[in-house]
Fold this sequence. Notes:
Chain A is 41% helix and 18% strand. By secondary structure, chain A is of the alpha/beta class. In chain B, strand 5 and strand 6 form a beta hairpin.
Amino acid sequence: MSKVKSKRIGFRIDMTPMVDVAFLLLTFFMLTTKFRPPEPVQIDLPSSHAEQKVPESDILTVSVSGDNRYFMGVSSQLSRTRIFERVVQPRLEAAGMSGIAVADSLQGFKLAEVFPVRKNELPHFVTAARFANQRLRPVVKADANADFEAVNHVLKLFKESNILTFNLVTVLEKEVR
Amino acid sequence: MGMVDSPNGRDSGRKAKRRRKRPGFHIDMTPMVDVAFLLLTFFMLTTTFSRANTMEINIPPENSEVKIAETNVMTFRIARDGYAFWSIGEGTPRKMRLYDEREAMTLSSEVRQVLVQQTKANSKLVIVVKISDQAKYKYLVDLIDEFNMMNIDRFSLDDFTDADAMAIGILASGVTEVPDLN
């Protein structure tokens, strides 16, 4: 790079500060980025002008897909473990699964960010989640084209479980894809 | 670009600068910096700081009952095909389109007009929303959104019963065939 031989007067820019900043930013983005887990279903959210954000932690998400299937997600692994112990484990044991197999499926369940739930099982899971963590903030994430009946089922369920404050996930009207 | 001069005892031959007395060596950092920038760009473009937006809903407990004069109640029924029917008290429901166009994102101007007029005319108005089971969830969100924007906080959701279907069904059969919006 340094051509001393040439007559032309070259110039050098000290790029060290720029590279420093670049690395700083790179480290920041690499450490703060949390990749979104792959979702089992694509949900087209309805749009609204609400600008409130979802709570950061302790959320219980009940998703309703466009074809009216239900999915549930609990943000903390501890709560998931408790839900497993309360709802899934007795069922697996009743089905005659060995202890090792149960422990194995617990591992899988702990890692599952979102899992499908049948409509008639939903009440059990919601109550179990409430028992697992009292401070869970319920959030309904439903597809815009889901039937009202399917969503209403969740709303009624919340009402029955005495969950009177919850959030509906929407996208901001301005930036609809 | 991105060179590091490192004072070192060893002479790295031709690459050493002549004007310096001390023999050092250079590491060409260009590829590393290139990769760093590439990653930086990637992370900057893929990161979204925004969390999803939500609207908060508060529902009354199951066994709470409030008595309201009939004239202060506006019933807003939404049928499965995207038509809305509104009535005051026990009056006959009037029909209107919920959306101007098929894929519209906001409610039709007619609905908005009715809401503005009625809430202005009666400050004690309570809107009871009844949505048909076959209707879309989108209708609910759009309606609540509209209420929020108009600062209407006196509304409630109620079950859409057979009686409601009858009330609007009689009307729907009386007029010409309704085009299905969905």
